[in-house]
Amino acid sequence: MKIVIPTNCPECNSVLIKINDQLFCQNKICPAQINGKIVHFAKTLGIKGLGEKTVEKLNLESISDLYQLTLEELIEVVGEKTATKLINEIERSKTSTFATVLSAMSIPLIGNTAAIKIATVVNGFDEITPKLCLKAGLGEKATQNLLDWLSNNLEIIEFLPFTFEKTNKTEKEIIGVVCITGKLKSYKNKAEATKELETLGYKVVDTLTKSVNILVDEENKGSSKRITAEERGIQIITDLKQFINN
Questions:
Q1: Confidence of residue 164 (pLDDT cuts 50, 70, 90)
Q2: Domain 174-245 maps to which CATH number in 3.40.50.10190, 3.30.1700.10, 3.10.120.10, 2.60.40.10?
Q3: What pTM did the predictor assign?
């Protein structure tokens, strides 16, 4: 049977572009692309109940539309019980860290690690500059992708409800906030690990606060902190010694 290679997107009928033997739809308003980005955003921020089927039913046009939804609108789509839970999840997500939100935006090469780097030098989208991207250790291509996304998504950013905590990055010289859970395998104890992390410029805390962007969990026994970190999209380190060496 002969395989017919498609030439158009099955969702929006835009002409597909071939990149590295893969076909891509580059239509920014393609419903499938928009829904995929919203699903990724919801998953990264840990918004439970906002899967593919629900997103398709809501017929949203951008991520910012998610925060314009009312309880009444949701009830019409998913029913009262589910709508109430979902509206609470959406409200809770407003407390997400800047690094988490940035990594949720589906920007090429700007995943969790890159977002955490950026968050060590800026407090929000409006502070991002080429110079600070360089200071954060971001690569040239990743920096360009981020700057291009910012210039093309000003309207989305404007209507996002996040009020990120403002801190003086230079004065405090904190490059990340770390929480350690469970027993360590790469260090004798937490005190030893904490001392080394603080020497490098990290702040170590005992609880998984909103400011934490790295969770160290070398045991991986499914602790509540691990589960919460996964829901929030926080970077999880399973070998602290290797992380520090790198």
A1: confident
A2: 3.40.50.10190
A3: 0.63
